[in-house]
Amino acid sequence: MDPPASWRVLEFYSGIGGMRYSLMASGVRAEVVEAFDINDVANDVYELNFGHRPCQGNIQTLTASDLDKYKAHAWLLSPPCQPYTRQGLQKHSADARAFSFIKILNLMQNMSYPPQMLFVENVVGFEVSDTHDQLLEVLSRLNFNTQEFILSPLQFGVPYSRPRYFCLAKRKPLCFQNPSVNSKLLRTPMCLSLTNNTSQNGHDQNEEELELVCNPIRDFLVKEADGGIPSEMILENYLVPLNLIERWGNAMDIVYPESKRCCCFTKSYYRYVKGTGSLLATSENLKQVPEEKLEISSLKELGLRFFTPREVANLHSFPTSFYFPDHISLRQQYAMLGNSLSVAVVAPMLQYLFTETL
Fold first, then answer.
1. pLDDT, tens digit (0-9, with 9 covering 90-100), for 203-256
2. Whether residue 93 has pLDDT greater than 70
3. Interatomic CA distance for residues 351 and 346, integer angstroms
4. 110-124, 164-178, 184-198: the lowest-pLDDT one
5. Long-range contact list for 40-45, CB < 8 A, 24+ apart?
6. What is the pLDDT of residues 295-340, one digit of tens each?
7. What per-residue confidence (pLDDT) applies to 57?
8. Greater confidence, 292 or 62?
9. Edge-to-edge strands of the sheet including 304-306?
10. Any catalytic annotation for residue 81?
11. pLDDT band of 199, cuts 50, 70, 90
12. Catalytic, out of 55, 81, 167, 262
């Protein structure tokens, strides 16, 4: 089977375009023939950056014939993660937010032109859900080989702890560059190098080891000299209020420009300070002090601020050309970034998935 001149791709749950940016960064010869997302605000962002507005509506209303007409070679999916998060109710497939993904799986089995490749991204926890079991059952029934991963930007030199689950699937006769890891769940990106060296070292690097090879956070910060946000605007919009430091100081994850790791930014970042993402210490001549040794009075002197949306986008490895429409509020920007994905992780995975090995 000869590869097409350009792969035709459908993008489901397209959000603000993280998957499409990853596809572009992968260098794969591909065309997104349609994107789907129910969120009109996310679609505003997507349209501004890509010149195409995703098909807006409930994916559950799609039929097999609707999808057949695209004759897409690959489907890229980042379905809602709330049914599988640790903080959620973990209702898995019984959660209404999982219904559309299950509908897509059912449609695949009734199509005349099902996809040849599938890429699924979700939170850690999806891999132990019954939805995951349904995914693998459908893919097996349709003659797909699968390779699964749990990977973080830290493994790609980005100082950002955001482990995520990924499923890569190719329908026979297509096959993976490294077929020896078919049907396995890996926690290393080693086999993505597109070489035939598939030996696994049997142990995973911990975060402390990964931090040694990461770039410092300062490389991802917006600098006023480069056209970034003026200092007075940061003071006005992004400094952490003292009353929040007094109440939640001991629960905050504080990082410094020299740090080589920050916590995952969630959709609730900027609304809350506990468990939603790291805060940046900005005071001049500050020294890194272990958080457990910091008194509340000391925390007040650190000049703590939130990362700006542009900086969060940088840590997600979005291109500098990405931006939000003027009418999108700060909270909406943070929420949509929190629901997005890491281009640094997904781009090499898509390059690996689309490698034309028959």
1. 456 666 776 689 999 999 998 665 566 667 766 789 999 999 989 888 899 999
2. no
3. 9
4. 184-198
5. 41/328, 41/332, 41/336, 42/14, 42/15, 42/16, 42/336, 43/14, 44/325, 44/327, 44/328, 45/16, 45/17, 45/324, 45/325, 45/328, 45/336
6. 666 888 899 999 999 999 999 999 999 999 999 999 999 999 999 9
7. 84
8. 62
9. 254-255, 279-281, 304-306
10. yes
11. very low
12. 81
Q: How far apart are CA 218 and CA 301, in angstroms?
A: 20
Given a contact cutoff of 8 angstroms between Cβ atoms, the answer to whether 355 and 32 are in contact is no
Rounded Cα gap, residues 114 and 121, in angstroms: 19
What does the block give as tokens for 97?
A: 């937010």
Residues in the chain: 358
